[in-house]
Structures are given as structure tokens and as C-alpha cells.
């Protein structure tokens, strides 16, 4: 799955993940949510910035994902920062456990989107970037932008 994959309507994106990590592989996971959380996510009131995924007792959970309480939810609202279970096949969870056991690898949520009416999460296996890697990526973006600008001006 690529950065701009066959996703449906994108509800939230973690742009900082692409800046701070090298994304090795991506997986699509379902989420276990309650009704008021789904309504709040559909309204775009979700934040993936400080979130991460971890494996506990052979199950995958997302931690730190903030889903704002739904205004009309009253007693049905849950804790905005609670851990939510991710739905993947057992073999995929085992593969992710193998990745995260290696040094420097982590599971980072990349985006939240709707697919056939269901909320899905793009989960990336990521390795942290060093500061010099980030500077190099910024320099490459600037060079590409300058080249595109020159090509556009020559075409006119």
C-alpha cells in the first residue's frame, strides 16, 4: 500500500509520521469503536499526532489516538484517549511483532479513512529518522520544487 493508496474518504492523516520515520511497510487495520466515536471520527474530530500501536497478549492496540467526545453523545461517550483494539489477522500480528522486536522499529498510524462505510487505519512499520536524514529529505524537496518551478517558467 502506498502513501496515496486505494483509500476511501480520508478522515485524518499523520503527516508528522512521514517526516519523522522511514515507513517500511503499511497494513490496513479495522478498529473496534463505539457508535459515538464513529460519529465523532466521521466529523473529523480525531488526532493521530502522538499515537502509536503496540502488541499486548497477541492483540494489537492503538494508544494515544485522541477522539473528541461527540456533542450529542452524553452518557455514551468514552474516554477520548482510551486504547482501541485494532483488527488484523493473527499471522499479520505475528509478523508485526517480529518487526517491532528488532531494534529501532515501531508501529505508527499513518491515516484514518472510510472504506465501504467502515473506519480503517493505515498502520506503518517505521524506523526512526536521524536529524541528518530529515535535513536531507527537506533539501531533496526544495531541489525538486526548484526544478518544477524552472520547468514551469520555461514552458511559458
TrEMBL record:
CDD domains named in the record: SmpB
InterPro entries assigned to the protein according to its UniProt record, in alphabetical order: SmpB (IPR023620), SsrA-bd_prot (IPR000037), SsrA-bd_prot_CS (IPR020081)
Pfam families linked to this entry: SmpB
Intracellular or extracellular location(s): Cytoplasm
GO BP term, pick one: trans-translation-dependent protein tagging
Keyword RNA-binding: yes
Gene3D superfamilies associated with the record: 2.40.280.10
Location (main, coarse): cytoplasm
Coiled coil feature spans: none
Signal peptide range in chain numbering: none
Record-linked SUPFAM superfamilies: Small protein B (SmpB)
GO cellular component: cytosol
Keywords carried by this UniProt record: Cytoplasm, RNA-binding
Molecular-function GO term, any one: RNA binding
Family: Belongs to the SmpB family.
HAMAP family for this protein: SmpB (MF_00023)
Cited function: Required for rescue of stalled ribosomes mediated by trans-translation. Binds to transfer-messenger RNA (tmRNA), required for stable association of tmRNA with ribosomes. tmRNA and SmpB together mimic tRNA shape, replacing the anticodon stem-loop with SmpB. tmRNA is encoded by the ssrA gene; the 2 termini fold to resemble tRNA(Ala) and it encodes a 'tag peptide', a short internal open reading frame. During trans-translation Ala-aminoacylated tmRNA acts like a tRNA, entering the A-site of stalled ribosomes, displacing the stalled mRNA.
Protein name: SsrA-binding protein
Lineage: Bacteria, Bacillati, Bacillota, Clostridia, Eubacteriales
Originating gene: smpB
